[in-house]
Amino acid sequence: MSTPTDTLPRTDTAVAVADLTVRFSSKRGEVTALHDIGLHVRRGEFVSIVGPSGCGKSTLLKVVAGLTDPSGGSVELGGVPVRGAQRNIGYVFQRSALLEWRTVRKNILLQAEMRGLNKRAAEAECARLIEMTGLGGFENALPHELSGGMQQRVSLCRALLHEPEVLLMDEPFGALDALTRERMNIELHRIWRETGTTVLLVTHSVAEAVYLANRVVVMSPRPGRIVELLDVDLPAHREYATTMEQPEFISVANRVRELLGAAAHAD
After folding, report:
1. Average pLDDT of 197-202?
2. For residue 38, how far is the Cα from the chain centroid?
3. Which residue from 150, 154, 210, 209 is spatially nearest to 183, judged by alpha carbons?
4. Rounded mean pLDDT of 165-178?
5. Could you tell me the end-to-end alpha-carbon distance of the chain, in angstroms, rounded to an integer?
6. Element (H, E) at 110
7. Which end of the chain is more exposed for a tag (fewer CB within 10 A), N or C?
């Protein structure tokens, strides 16, 4: 088990958050969304973030992406301070946000158009991602012709097209039915193992958080603080059903639920 103030060698760190505080002003006064957050994420690590609704999980991702400015503290990506929107990250939201008039292939390649990537290289990477995510044969399908899970695969491909150093995922499977969500968990874990991309995932599902991650961050009610960092000592390759039965999985999942239950009681 790690501590909420863990540190890593600079060269091994993909994301470094130190003493982070975020405050917002509203008609009701100043609101502190995050307080004194410290988190170091290793290159290639998968970190899940869980906590009560409104505790600042999504805000934390936005600060890492450079979409929200911190009120105090610092954030670095690959040792470089975050100043404004970051181009070396990928972002997947709860809704796939696909353009209805563009095909699967053209939705993915929108990333290349927006970033001015080499067209030939982008098309080759797009084809590779389509095959890797099981979308082969649907390249010319429109979003309304796809299931919710397939739409999220397209969104994931779009986020990975430029080979980002860090992939941020904000409750990407929350709108899916239970069976599709399970399949997407399996798919995401396989893709992460194949790409080696650093991933930060926000989720409300304890099982999802523990199954996917190397570590689980548990946050308190607002103002969001990190109350515990839990290591997940499970094999890199994880069969979904058998993993759920492993003592280590059960131990970590129970601890997460215990912490969330205590947080809900305090809230």
Report:
1. 97
2. 17
3. 150
4. 92
5. 25
6. helix 104-115
7. N
For the segment 109-124, what is each residue's pLDDT rounded down to a tens digit? 999 999 999 999 999 9
Picking from 67, 92, 99, 63, the residue whose alpha carbon sits closest to that of residue 161 is: 92
Cα gap 87→169, rounded to integer Å: 15
Within the chain, what is the greatest distance between any pair of CA atoms? 55
What percentage of the chain has pLDDT greater than the value 90?
81
- DSSP-assigned letters across all residues of 140-158: T--GGGS-HHHHHHHHHHH
Q: Answer yes or no: are the C-beta atoms of 148 and 176 closer than 8 Å.
A: yes
DSSP assignment string, 193-231: HHH--EEEEE-S-HHHHHHH-SEEEEEPSSSB-EEEEEE
- Sole residue written with tokens 């430029």: 162
Helix, strand, coil percentages in the chain from 3-state DSSP, rounded to 5? 40, 25, 35
Q: Which two three-digit tokens encode residue 178?
A: 């239970």
Query: How confident is the model at residue 1, as a pLDDT?
Result: 41
Ramachandran bin of 161, using left for φ above 0, alpha for ψ from -120 to 50, beta for the remaining angles: alpha
State the Cα–Cα distance between residues 265 and 259, nearest whole angstrom: 10
By the 10 Å C-beta count (0-12 exposed, 13-18 middle, 19+ buried), 131 is classed as: exposed
